[in-house]
Amino acid sequence: MKIQFFVFFIFIFVFVFVGCKKEETASIVKFETKNMSYRDAEINKKVYAINSEITNDKIMGIWTTGESRNATFEIKSNSIYYVDNFKDYRYELNNDTIEIKYSDYTYRAKIFLKNDTLIMKSKEYSLAKYWRFKE
After folding, report:
1. pTM for the whole thing?
2. Is there a domain that residue 14 lies in?
3. Which among 97, 92, 93 is positioned nearest to 35, based on CA atoms?
4. What are residue 89's phi and psi, to 5 degrees?
5. Does residue 102 belong to any structural domain of this protein?
6. Which residue, 112, 126, 109, 14, is CA-closest to 59?
7. At 39, is the pLDDT very low, low, confident or very high (cuts 50, 70, 90)?
8. Is residue 8 part of a domain?
9. Is residue 52 a contact partner of residue 41, using CB atoms and an 8 Å limit?
10. Model confidence band, residue 20 (pLDDT cutoffs 50, 70, 90)
11. Domain of 119?
């Protein structure tokens, strides 16, 4: 009887210890704005500090997804040029929301900027991450 109790006690101890293990690294990215909170996919195992004010000057430049050696798009003062399509599309930036006006619909996303990383979160396409293109 004592052996069964001892085995049961060890089993409970291991179960509690493993079940309550604390995560060493942050694997969930949490974005918080005034009226939204997102818990989304893993991004480089870092929780990003979000810029409070995003302006055209901060997002202007050439960006890539990193999927190829080429740039994905260039953000200009009032348009976005897609390299593969050879087309410009108008956009508007309102606080932390970007609206890109394509010919058949308008894409809306919350944008977050951390150093050379641009993150767009939309209902349609979930999470998209871009890096400033360096030649």
Report:
1. 0.61
2. no
3. 97
4. -130, 140
5. yes
6. 112
7. very low
8. no
9. no
10. low
11. 25-132
pLDDT per position as a tens digit, 49-99: 455 588 999 999 999 999 988 999 999 999 999 999 999 999 999 989 999
Please tell me the distance from the alpha carbon of residue 128 to that of residue 108, in angstroms, as a whole number.
12
Whether residue 19 lies inside any domain: the answer is: no
Q: Looking at the 3D structure of the chain, how many domains does it have?
A: 1
Structure tokens at 14: 């291991």
Q: What's the maximum distance between 2 C-alpha atoms anywhere in the chain?
A: 78
Count of CB atoms within 10 A of residue 21's CB? Answer: 7
Residue 58 CA, chain-centre distance (Å), reads: 17
Mean pLDDT of 35-42: 38
**CA separation, residue 112 to residues 62, 72, 85 (Å):** 16, 18, 25
Number of residues that this document lists for the chain: 135
CB 40 within 8 A of CB 121: yes
CA nearest neighbour of 122 among 27, 31, 53, 21 = 31
